[in-house]
Amino acid sequence: MTSRTAVLAHAARLARHAPSILNTQPWQWHIGRHTAELRPDTTRSLPYLDPDHHLMLLSCGAALHHATVAIQAQGRQVTVERGTDPLARLTLGPPDTPRHTDLAAAITHRRTDRRAFGSQTPGDEIIADLRKAVAAQGLHLRPVRRDELPLLAAATSRAASDAAHRPGLRAEVATWTDRPTEHGDGIPTATTATATLRRVPMRDFAPGSDGGFAISAAASDIGARYVVLHSDHPDDWLRAGAALSALLLTATVRGVACSPMSELVEAPWPRSILTTLIGTTGHPYLVVRLGYPVDDGPPPAAPRRPETETTHYGFTNASPHPGLTNASPHPRLMDASPRP
After folding, report:
1. In CATH, what number does 3-107+306-337 get?
2. What is the pTM of this model?
3. What CATH number belongs to 124-291?
4. Helices 54-73 and 3-15: crossing angle, nearest 10°?
5. For the stretch 112-131, what's the b/e string if a residue is b when 16 or more beta carbons lie within 10 angstroms of its beta carbon?
6. Which of 8, 99, 103, 282 supports an S-S bond with 230, CB 3.0-4.6 Å?
7. What percent of the chain has pLDDT over 90?
8. What segment(s) does the record annotate as region Disordered (predicted)?
């Protein structure tokens, strides 16, 4: 393995820790001598929860950003090209001063934290840092005001209720919950929380049973803040995933716990309510809950697929993936960019 290939292999290895919808990890890396190509793994799609593959693309975008950060932290320049098939190509450039080493170090420590958040509230300085990280990826971050929380809560509750009655969706979520350890994916019960009243409801991964964390009524996210990831451009889900990754890694560095909430973007009508709530003509991609857990210590890590399943060496003539696009006017690769 050449030194360049080793840099790309390390990046793909760290990218396995990226967040993904239901921890499906729906990506494949194909690594050559100087480049790494990212493609979606359509065998891990969610036809009921994510029929348009939007959240699959967002997940792949998070993995793309993780990989880019890992390369830059190793002291290499990298060019990012986004497209449709492949979704992205990373091309190594010459050696450079290591950058984003703090973000790279946070990759294996980041967790989706579904525990209750206490009364301490993330300050405006932290929100400003998160906004800056998101803006570097071409997106915006809109904090939800306190007076807007009732609308956010009502819309989330209604979206969850409607989703529970969508044919096949509940069984699909159950399929990806508490899977056998050897699968290396899905949502372990140990990382979920018992369904209870919160300021804004969260997805119940195990209806009728207890989750891994018990939540008291006295600590129901009283200090949590909620932010909406949005863009001026529709259907730029891959870039939205990169912005989510930047937000989560920056929050981890700042000691803030996060849990992405996708319920309001999984169907058109709740997404339109979210658009109304943020008061913009932009396009919302995700809600993220921020705060400080009542419990000490980190939550359990979610499982990860073996590297041999997600990373391949050499390129194949993969066929295009209908429906998996990045809202690009060009059918192949575009938008070369040296940023993470």
Report:
1. 3.40.109
2. 0.91
3. 3.40.109.10
4. 140
5. bbbbbbbeebbeeebbebbb
6. 282
7. 64
8. 296-340
